[in-house]
């Protein structure tokens, strides 16, 4: 209710006046606080206790993009994130995978993108948009995909 009254009062302020500018700044602050509250209620940051054993394993972070992906890890010596470069030295990997007849990954990244035109039925590029879809939904999506983005799979997974 307080916010609604504030917004109504802001609407009646004359444009260009000091009251209008302050109202706009306050409204933006309120929006930022709401965004922060919505985000913090969905995500939690777990702080590591210094007594916990950090030698349990190495973890990597993956930014799975529609076109390109990036991988990082925390350097144990410096405690800073480091990017895992691709074989060519780039910081990003193309989001592409080529499978063989036994459904095992044959190529990934830059190599898979390079053979996408010749092995279009076995290569999946930009597959992020397919994640979370059921098998029956793939038929509707396949019309949106280009020829190099079509992966032929039947109900038995062949």
Give your account of this protein's structure.
Strands 1, 2, 3 and 4 form a four-stranded antiparallel β-sheet that branches. It is built from four helices and seven strands. The mean pLDDT is 70. By secondary structure, it is α+β, with helices and mostly antiparallel strands. The protein has helices at 2-12, 18-42, 110-114, 138-142, and strands spanning 60-64, 68-74, 81-83, 93-94, 96-99, 105-108, 123-125. Among the domains are: 2-42; 94-149, no CATH class. The radius of gyration is 25 Å and the shape is extended. GO terms for molecular function: ATP binding; ATP-dependent protein folding chaperone. Pfam families: HSP70 (PF00012). Keywords: ATP-binding, Nucleotide-binding.
Summarize the structure.
With 158 residues, the chain is of the alpha+beta class. It contains 4 helices and 7 strands; from the N terminus they run H-H-E-E-E-E-E-E-H-E-H.
List keywords for this structure.
158 residues, alpha+beta, three-stranded antiparallel beta sheet, 4 helices, 29% helix, 18% strand
Largest sheet, if any?
4 strands, antiparallel
What would the average pLDDT be, to the nearest integer? 70
Uncertain stretches: none
Helix content: 25-40%
What is the H/E string?
HHEEEEEEHEH
Structural class: alpha+beta
- Give the N-terminus to C-terminus distance in angstroms: 58 Å
Give the C-alpha Rg. Answer: 25 Å
Percent strand: 15-25%
Spatial shape: extended
* Helical stretch tally: 4
Report the strand count.
7
